[in-house]
Amino acid sequence: MTATTAAAAGAGIDPERAKDIMGSVCAPVGVVTTTEDGRTYGATVSSFAALSIEPPLITVSFERTSYLLGRIRSAGRFGVNLLGHGQDDLATTFARRGVDRFAETAWHLDSGLPRIEGAAGWLACDLYDTVEGGDHLLLFGLVTRVARVDLPPLIYAHRTFGTHSRFGDRKRPLIADVIAACSC
């Protein structure tokens, strides 16, 4: 038993209680995709985070039993479709088992990876490293391509989808004001 495992076991935290508290943390919602042998694979995740700018790295985690995890490790590449507010139907579709998740989803290949139409953000990644973490495996992705649309993000907390409450209210200065401020 490792020191980390021993500490967790000794803590005596009820897994359901831990799940409840972790579920109260707002998390971005995305659909991670990959291709292998000409087939497309994808699943909803809420475990995405930026890690590093130099080099550009992101993290995403999967349960060790995840079918998609095996496909990503084999392919060595994956895409992250960051969903926007109002795309909770896509998040639900890609979270279901036993269905063709791409059948009724508008998507195309971008850098050889499935990219969902209308997503707020897109990252193509090479698998950079993996780190074991309990019952999950944390993937580090080296970002090789990005695209972004100025849409409110889809987030998940307290077992429901939403968005940042003030996204639409934020002030955006006119570009002329930004240029004038920089010319001082």
TrEMBL record:
InterPro entries hit by this protein: Flavin_Rdtase-like_dom (IPR002563), NADH-dep_flavin_reductase (IPR050268), Split_barrel_FMN-bd (IPR012349)
The record's annotation in SUPFAM superfamilies points to: FMN-binding split barrel
Domain of life of the native organism: Bacteria
Name the protein family: Belongs to the non-flavoprotein flavin reductase family.
Kindly give the SMART domains that the UniProt entry links to this protein: Flavin_Reduct
Q: Name one GO molecular function term.
A: riboflavin reductase (NADPH) activity
Provide the protein name: Flavin reductase family protein
Record keywords, A-Z: Oxidoreductase
Domain Flavin reductase like stretches: 22-163
